[in-house]
Design a protein that fits this description.
Layout: E1 2-8, E2 11-16, E3 28-36, H1 39-45, E4 56-57, E5 61-69, E6 81-84, E7 87-88, H2 94-97, H3 115-118, E8 124-125, E9 142-145, H4 148-151, E10 153-154, H5 161-165, H6 170-179, E11 188-192, H7 196-207, E12 212-217, H8 220-230, E13 233-236, H9 243-250, E14 258-261, H10 271-282, H11 291-299, E15 305-308, H12 320-325, E16 329-332, H13 337-349, E17 361-364, H14 368-376, E18 385-388
Parallel strand pairs: 11-12, 11-14, 12-13, 14-15, 15-16, 17-18
Antiparallel strand pairs: 1-2, 1-4, 3-5, 3-9, 3-18, 5-6, 6-10, 7-8
Helix pairs in contact: 6-7, 6-13, 9-11
This protein binds zinc ion (2 copies).
One zinc ion (ZN) binds near residues 95 and 105.
Length: about 400
């Protein structure tokens, strides 16, 4: 089959690789009908996250049609059109039973790569480094889905592929981030980042009853999406002296009730702190640029909630004192998509959630390297590149 592989730092190629096969009785093989890029892919494509090997098939956000099932697969059937969350989960362990799916204890075959950094390993992810399991990814004609019954979600008829594709990752991540905020009527929610996850977090905050949502970014076309597709108010941080002051003004001096970081370790920013982060990151003295997260911590009202969706590794100058003294509640996780999928499919079917506007650019699989380049450089207003094998 044809697949997009990582060949080295900033070197993606489409090559012919071995077809996936049923390895375990709970597996299924999916014929991928649509997959999409993710900001977190950029962290290993450019080498910030190590443990990639030349030849690894990448991609973790996808949907498709079931082509073959293992002998123990009970619910999923050949021909089913399904969407699959990016974390691989067994459905049986303590974490899965407590709906903490991205922490599944049974799907990381290489825990020794994570334990020194995290203490315990997370679940595995498709196509996302050996530190996250070394599974083959989904920018390919076919992909193996372990634990098919737990991880394949049947798409209702009449809901088009493009609307469902983002239920694989961006939508459940954003939805979970809003859910973490325990939103009450009248709440103001500020979201750093207007990429796929940030826009989904904003939409979800409204679905959960937020009165006002404020999206923060620097790209005019993304801010426009936040206003037009979501109904958010927006701040372009490059056009204001201080996001903190603007947020204070917009909230009568109190600050947002909840702040969601949908940016992560490669944040852009302005000023001295950003220059400091950038310099240290370039020298590999720490891995993360934390401008967005620090700002969210300072901007949040006293006693508010900080919900962290951006991907992080190690950061210094982390304002733990502001969190402690202001009594913030901090919630964070990689997406527990399986916990939200029924609600998300219901929202999609009712037309309350339609993330298809994120799919700004479409490519054939053969053109995927160009799709990633456009996505990385945000060329032509690219929010997400979508691949159709
Ligand atoms: Zn993703
Ligand atoms: Zn599990």
């Amino acid at each position: 089959m044809r697949a997009l592989i990582w060949n080295g730092v900033n070197d993606l190629r489409v090559e012919t690789v071995k077809d996936p096969e049923i390895v375990n009785p709970h597996d299924c093989i999916l014929r991928v009908t649509m997959s999409t890029t993710c900001g977190s892919d950029l962290h290993f494509i450019d080498g910030y996250i190590p443990t990639m090997k030349a030849g690894d098939v990448i991609g973790h956000e996808f949907m498709g049609v079931v082509e073959d099932v293992g002998p123990e697969v009970k619910k999923v059937k050949k021909g089913d059109r399904v969407v699959v969350p990016s974390f691989i989960t067994c459905g049986q362990c303590w974490y899965c039973k407590n709906k903490l799916y991205s922490l599944c204890d049974n799907t990381h075959p290489k825990p020794e790569l994570q334990e020194p950094v995290f203490g315990y390993p997370t679940a595995g992810i498709y196509g996302y480094t050996h530190a996250f399991g070394g599974y083959a990814g989904a920018h390919a004609q076919y992909v193996r889905v372990p634990f098919a019954d737990n991880d394949c979600f049947k798409v209702p008829d009449g809901v088009p592929d493009e609307q469902v594709l983002f239920l694989s990752d961006a939508a459940p991540t954003g939805y979970m981030g809003a859910d973490f905020c325990n939103i009450q009527p009248g709440d103001v929610v500020a979201v750093w980042g207007c990429g796929g996850v940030g826009l989904m977090a904003q939409r979800s905050a409204f679905l959960m009853g937020a009165e006002r949502v404020i999206g923060i970014d620097r790209l005019p076309e993304r801010l426009q999406m936040a206003r037009e597709h979501v109904g958010s108010e927006t701040i372009n941080y490059e056009e204001v002296d201080s996001v903190l002051e603007v947020l204070k003004e917009m909230t009568g001096g109190r600050g947002p009730d909840a702040c969601i970081d949908a940016v992560g370790m490669e944040a852009h920013g302005t000023g001295l702190q950003y220059a400091y982060d950038r310099a240290k990151q370039l020298m590999y003295m720490h891995t993360d640029r934390g401008q967005a997260l620090r700002e969210a911590i300072l901007a949040c009202r006293k006693g508010g909630t900080l919900s962290i969706l951006g991907v992080y590794g190690v950061m210094d100058k982390f304002p733990i004192g502001a969190i402690m003294n202001k009594g913030l509640t901090v919630r964070t996780a990689q997406q527990h998509g399986q916990a939200y999928m029924d609600r998300l499919l219901d929202h999609a079917q009712k037309g309350e959630l339609n993330p298809s506007f994120l799919a700004t650019h479409r490519f054939s699989l053969e053109d995927a390297p160009r799709g990633y380049a456009m996505f990385k450089h945000k060329e032509d207003g690219c929010v997400r590149s979508v691949f159709i094998p």
